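Quick one - inputs below.
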Amino acid sequence: MSLYELFLNNTGRPIHKSGHYFFAYERHFGKYVGQPVTFLEIGAGNGGSSQMWKRWLGPLARIVTIDINEVCRQYEDEQVAVRIGDQSNPQFLQTIIDEFGVPDAVLDDGSHHMQHVSESFQFLYDRIASNGVYMIEDMHTAYWPEYGGGRGDPRSIIERFKGLIDDLNADHVRDGTVTPSKFTRQTVAMTAYDSILVFEKAPLINKHMRMIGNEDLRVNY
Amino acid sequence: MKTCESTTNLLSNLMISLQRCTLLWGTADIHDDDPQVRVVDDCVYLPYSHGSVWGLFSSDGRPVLEAIDFREGLHVPGDQRLPGEGRIDVAVAERSDTTYIYVGRINFHYGHFLVNTLPRFWNITKIKTPNTKILYHGPMSIEQIFSTPYVKTILSMLGLTPEDFVKFVAPTKIKHVVVPKTSFEEQRSGYSKYKSLCHDIGCRLLRNIDSSARIGTLYYSKTRLRSAVGIITNEIEVEEYMREKGVRIVYPEELSLEEQLSLMSKAENIIASAGSFLHTSIFCSPRNITCLNVTEQINSNYTIIDKLNRNAAEYYYPTAMQVLPQQDGYLTARYLPEARAVAEKLFEISRS
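Output:
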């Protein structure tokens, strides 16, 4: 059953998602289905989503859900761990890593406030698996002032994402205005969807560009 | 009674003379193009040392002129000295880990921050990526700078945190430094990019503030300042007159930046003696300003901001103003004869 079907057929705790998110989920998290994986979900909602992830990812998946609301503890089961704390608190996030190890994937569905989103990303991105995926959803809030956003507002994660595109491509910047960074070396892809941002890491990124084939057949110079 | 009051006014008007200031100390050119941006490779950073040689230098030892905050386009800041001819011959550390964006000397005194520091940030949101660092000079650590509330407020509106900033304590050779030229040349010129920068900051700060309510007239008072560039020793007489007229008295040093913006953006008229608090208008929509100037000339920094912000601003000099011996805490002290009459005139002018 596809993740989207799991969502549509859900009769348990409620899940609040936009339909097109499943296009992104299946593309970026699909590689974890059936695999041993530590999946960190920021924001528990009503508990339905952690069950959905468990059903989709399979019996080897450890779902770790964090939320600031104590009531969310009741969502725990044999595969779902719930910890209560602030997603923007590095000390709290470190306790999660200490307890469960390095997350393979992160889905930030927490407060959706720009400050919290940025601080979680700032702390976690360097610490997730070297082939990990970091996804932030509901980022329409990046355009909303009440969430610390606004179009062109440098505090918004969308503006940060735009800047990181330059860091991703820093190897090719010739005027010295950007220098390759750790982010450049560990990030293989950044993907933007309506309301969703995705970062994908790789332990080795082969950027060696070659022309391969019969040189005699080359006509277009 | 009315006749008696009119006569008093007439006498006062005869006794005092308010001269509309038109002469500038400095120039006030406005540029609509962008300030230059220079990338300096193999740049040498000499740490801040008050009154000594510090700044950015190219690999051949010459000062990076775009990195210097010249006053009137000529004068090097008082706390900075340029070296003589020749190389900067010092042992240096090296940095090639990232690109640095240079923002000059961070000066947390309000007027200097707005006129000297903030103008370097005119394109920061465009050129800074999350992994580039902001390089600065100054005696303060960035933690100390961010502990100044209005500085923290302004920089955070640009999405900047202390972690974005760095300064070096030893001479350091840096692979790449981006040097945006200032968008406000002190007492010389201003760039419309500076206005855009401040306007954006102001809009973000005022987002959550109901600015529909109007305030008639504000009077910015220096009577509670414990130190300043200059004071009028009997300014309290002006303040009392304004208060009697229903003018709201503002002591800007007691307010947060958000509170200052909120008040200033709602005020129909602003009366003040010249002070850096008037520069706050650059964050607001165009303001009506009537200023009591303590000299015949207007420091052109005010004019630059008025022009950039399209303020309707007039500056008046009371010709009877008297200079007093220096007092503790103030560079200059002055006495204003017929202070109430001057206040009355300023009030009338502000409403005309």
